[in-house]
Amino acid sequence: MTDASIHIRGGRLIDPANGIDDELDLFIRDGLVACVGDMPEGFQADETIDASGQVVCPGLIDLGVHLREPGEEHKGTICSEAEAAARGGITTLICMPNTFPVIDTPAVWELIRRRAKACGSARVLAIGALTKNLEGGQLAEMGALKQAGCVAVSNTRRRMANTLVTRHAMEYARTFDLPVILCSEDPHLKADGCVHEGSVASRLGLPGIPSAAETVAVARDLALTEHTDSRSHFHTLSTGRAIEMIRQARHGGARLSADVAIHQLFLLDTDVDGFHADCHVEPPFRTQTDR
Fold first, then answer.
1. With contact defined as beta carbons under 8 Å apart, do 267 and 285 qualify?
2. Domain that holds residue 76
3. How many domains is the chain partitioned into structurally?
């Protein structure tokens, strides 16, 4: 009911764009914000929502969603996952290209876009493949992907053939002003590791992933970003050192951004103790210093 007048009262209103973080009422008319704070003159609410003890904020954006449709609909469909996201306050999903088939042609993205539009819940955007079939060798048709509506390109966590291919991919993406989403991790240093390399891994007898697996790859990708003058976004970082490297590069003028997965802000490698399978994530949980 987008044309309804809604009064949301008693909530903690957070709006970073306007510098608001306070307990304020929100008034919505015809799907738009009519007023914040005091009720506007002549406003009559069709619905009043008591948000006491709750946070009222703009819809959240998930930057790296791995949709199971197309290809693995038995695990989840676009509609079921978009609906679950909307119920959790996430109004925009950015779909990674590792669907089946891979989003390396406009046709695959058009299929996803139409299905998402028909569902009518959370908005779905797409990241196109950096290389064909995410195989790390031949570059994907980035111009066609952008024209179809893809907002960025990525090879997810799939290995690139070599650094030269990564350089050419960044240069090609720059010609279309497409951001490159990087999941920086050295596959040789990661090897068969499954948790952070440290005392917990040693005690449990599990192969570890050193912090250097991330920082070495970030250093390489930073150098390539600066060399190609491309736009790069470092996705789901886990080490404090990598964040510091990116901060310094941004200070030097590089066109960079970065994110961390929300669970990295709350959990540590010590939470893996007891072989908790729910804490087996990529990249792994790091130390208190990293958090």
1. yes
2. 60-279
3. 2
